[in-house]
Amino acid sequence: MHRREFLLSLAAAPLFKSNPFIQGIASGDPLPDSIVLWTRLESPQLSSGLEVEWILAEDEGLKKIVKRGKEIASDDLGYSVHADVKGLKPARWYWYQFRCGGVESEIGRTRTAPAPGSQDTLRFAFASCQHYEQGYYTAYEHMAKEDLQLVVHLGDYIYEGGISANRPRKHNSPEIVTLNDYRNRYSLYRSDAHLRKVHQLFPWIVTWDDHEVDNNYADDKEERGASRESFLERRANAYQAYYEHMPLRKSSLPRGSKLDLYRRFDFGKTARIHVLDTRQYRSDQPCGDGRKPQCPAALDPSQTMLGETQERWLMNGMKEARQTWNVLANQVMFAKTDVKPGDGQEYSMDQWSGYEAARQRLIRNWREAKPNNPVILTGDIHSNWVSEVEDVAVEFVGTSITSGGDGVELPFAEANFKKENPGLHFFLAKRGYVSCLVDQKRYESNYRIVPVVTTPGGPMETRAKFVVESGRPKIQRG
Ligand SMILES: [Fe+2]
User: Fold this and answer.
1) Fewer Cβ within 10 Å of end Cβ, the chain: N or C?
2) Separation of alpha carbons 6 and 22, rounded Å
3) How far is the CA of 128 from the centre of ligand 1 (A)?
């Protein structure tokens, strides 16, 4: 808030003694005619049932207002606001602002998806894994300067752990379990100005991985074997806090410990983004957790990563897509990647390789149904990997924003991994994000890298660029 506005609000009887919009503003889930606007009030003086106004305009100065409305922010949903603004024009920028108790939020910018027949180029970045304690959000500082239409987040937006020693920043509580714990953790992450800025500038499409709840959880099972009841109670807290803090439609409102997060977005005839949830419906890790050879249970056809309903939804949605690119906003690595140097094979059992039967079902389906150009985007493992998935798909694994700290250059490891995995084209364990340019002919991924995250600031470089041509699932160096 600007100082002048704050003083004005003090002139009238003030409802707030401090800025209630300190968690920022956001927008998301763009459709050709609709966008979700988000904010959450945070103030020591909140009373229940506060009316929050929003306006949406065609210009940055908010002169040409085209829509306005009101939402009630209440205690039971953490004073969050999710306004679903309809009746908008496709493929255009809009600016918006919230007002409550005489206080104005900052002005945000957002953009609708293109019309169904559009052949517009899609420019977006994807990111994941932003452990607050392990570094500064310099990658977001650079992302904010890019010419993007959208940001896709693949999960690990927060981490659930307690406070660690000797880290550049500190968590604000022991391991989070209650609804208040989770809310408090989102407040901490949103205290970062670079993160807030990227929300303010672009619409986001979000999905989660494990750390929004608990490390490597699977459906109703947590890693250390808490009872099902107590874990589902914790999951309900985590899912509610996730909904409260993300620019999601009201249709994503959780019901107890369930929240249907998988959904899809069309960007004209260029790309269809299938947003996956690989945590909520998966079987328990068939071979247990960790890195090991695939055990026979990974091949058991009853094993699932997406759950039956989501798996069918994905296959149908890919087959029916008239878009050139079927983009999967996925969490865990899909390409079967041997990470054991030398003799023998080891795979990460939390990833699709630990659910080989489910992985093969999708590959078989893509060979038979021949959906247009599957491109898998992945987070989770705090490193970059670029792979061809047999002869049917490509996978771009982005690295973390901060998780894992500064990271390392491992040219020998890259050479070794490539030797063991013929489909692998790139490996790097530095921090950053991936910026994509997608048109009717090409899918281009730019690997943006920052040298350090344990101290703030610093440059960004494009370490590598990869291109895939439509109709040919092969990775080419750009
Ligand atoms: Fe992570």
Assistant:
1) C
2) 13
3) 7
The span from the CA of 247 to the CA of 83, in Å, is 9
Distance CA 223, CA 218 (A): 8
Name the one residue in this structure whose structure tokens are 């994941």. Answer: 128
Burial class (CB in 10 A: 0-12, 13-18, 19+), 326: buried
210 Cα to the center of ligand 1, angstroms: 8
Q: Model-level pTM?
A: 0.96
57 SS3 class: strand
Phi, psi angle pair for 468, to nearest 5°: -120, 135
Report pLDDT for 223.
77
Ligand 1 centre distance from Cα of residue 363 (Å): 26
**Span from the CA of 397 to the centroid of ligand 1 (angstroms):** 12
Which residues are close to ligand 1, an ion, with C-beta < 5 A? Answer: 129, 156, 403
CA 406–ligand 1 middle distance (angstroms): 14
- pLDDT tens per residue across span 320-355: 999 999 999 999 999 999 999 889 999 999 999 999
116 CA distance to ligand 1 middle (Å): 34
Return left, alpha or beta for 32; rule: phi > 0 is left, psi -120 to 50 is alpha, else beta. alpha
pLDDT category of residue 8 using cuts at 50, 70 and 90: very low
Backbone angles phi, psi at 26, to 5 degrees: -155, 165
**Amino acid letter for position 152:** V
Q: Which of 72, 104, 85, 100 is nearest to 27 (CA)?
A: 85
Smallest CA-to-CA distance from 206 within 379, 21, 383 is with 379
| Domain with residues 122-477, CATH architecture | 4-Layer Sandwich (3.60)
Cα 340 to middle of ligand 1, angstroms: 21
Quote the longest CA-to-CA distance of the chain: 74
Give me the pLDDT at residue 360, please. Answer: 98
Residue 159 Cα to ligand 1 midpoint, Å, equals 8
How many whole angstroms from 115 Cα to the centroid of ligand 1?
A: 35
Domain-wise residue ranges, the chain: 3-111, 122-477
The conformation of residue 221, written as its DSSP 8-state character, comes to B
Q: How far is the centre of ligand 1, averaged over its atoms, from the C-alpha of 59 (Å)?
A: 37
* Angle made by CA atoms 142, 145, 148, in degrees to the nearest 5: 110
| Cα-to-chain-centroid distance, residue 346 | 28
- Residue whose tokens read 């002169």: 63
- Cα 136 to averaged position of ligand 1 atoms, centre (Å): 15
